Amino acid sequence: MYQIKRNLNNIVQLQECSFSELGFREREHLQEWIAKNPDVLGEDLLILQKEFNGFSQTNERLDLLALDKEGSLVIIENKLDDTGRDVVWQSLKYVSYCSTLSTSQIVKIFQDYLDGSSSGVSAKTTILDFLETEDDESLVLNRKDQRIILVANNFRKEVTSTVLWLRDHDIQVQCFRAKPFSLDDDIFLQVEQIIPVPEISEFIVDIREKDKEDKGKSAVVAQTEADLLDFWKMVKARLKERQINYFDNVKAQPRWYLGFNKGRGRFGMVIGRNALRVELYFNNDADKQLFDAMDQFSSELNSAFNNELEWQRLDEKKASRIKFELSKAELEKFGNWDEPESIKSRVEWFSIEIERFYETMFPYWEKAQRSK
């Protein structure tokens, strides 16, 4: 790794080091860095607990327990300069322990973690915000197989060989190499995924699907993930027919929303508990700078939408949003979800309103970003 020296029009090589020679430790440092910045692992993850040891009849504890955007559990194991020989076996044990965790248990585990920091934040609310849904009644976590992420400076061949075999058998394991570098008094950290190679994983289609029954809960909007996937595919097809290209590069997913990012905001279509909505969503707006930057244009925007926009500053949350929603009463006129004409009506509503919302909102969003 090199540092670019603009003033000299040159590059300077950084010295690769080990964590131990720099005085860093696994739990106090590497684990804390990942807990505070889980996005270094290449995706949005919600850290649920550190040093989790809530397994009956064993004193073992996993390093970090996280949740991904699909509501699946992610077991993160950190090893400082060397993985050792048993890290895979250790992780598989933790996965087996976590496979039985229910939604309520996961919420409690996370609430204990939040309470430990005296944040006063609701675990369920935070999880719903993270998953970008308001449907707490049908919240089901840990439905799919759990995932493993291994982080270390050096991976032994017996570890990588085992990981590759597990991946060939549909066990979701990823390996990230964490390398510290130094230059004079400055220290740098590089975290890169080595298994699977990112460039290859982008082209791998996961054809394995496991459907577990959601006991005691009913899906309010769609009964299966396949229904959601089919619905968004129909929406994308209708948008294409209308020559609206916002979502051309957005893959339909079995989620309650479909969206794309513009700067630090996301334009999206969302299936709520009792309504459909289009929105401009700010996922990371704790100081409300993004929301306030748009609020200066509220008069013009409200006028364009006949004062039907909802401005949700959400002061108690990290997120904020501006939305236009189809009311529950209007939605009921569409009929039930299992009726083809009803589905068609919803598809048409999204295709019309996301265009109107985006074309009206985006010019102001551009101005707001420049004003910050």
TrEMBL record:
<dbReference type="InterPro" id="IPR025364">
    <property type="entry name" value="DUF4268"/>
</dbReference>
<dbReference type="Pfam" id="PF01939">
    <property type="entry name" value="NucS_C"/>
</dbReference>
<feature type="domain" description="DUF4268">
    <location>
        <begin position="230"/>
        <end position="364"/>
    </location>
</feature>
<dbReference type="Pfam" id="PF14088">
    <property type="entry name" value="DUF4268"/>
</dbReference>
<feature type="domain" description="Endonuclease NucS C-terminal">
    <location>
        <begin position="28"/>
        <end position="103"/>
    </location>
</feature>
<dbReference type="InterPro" id="IPR048301">
    <property type="entry name" value="NucS_C"/>
</dbReference>
<dbReference type="InterPro" id="IPR011856">
    <property type="entry name" value="tRNA_endonuc-like_dom_sf"/>
</dbReference>
<protein>
    <recommendedName>
        <fullName>DUF4268 domain-containing protein</fullName>
    </recommendedName>
</protein>
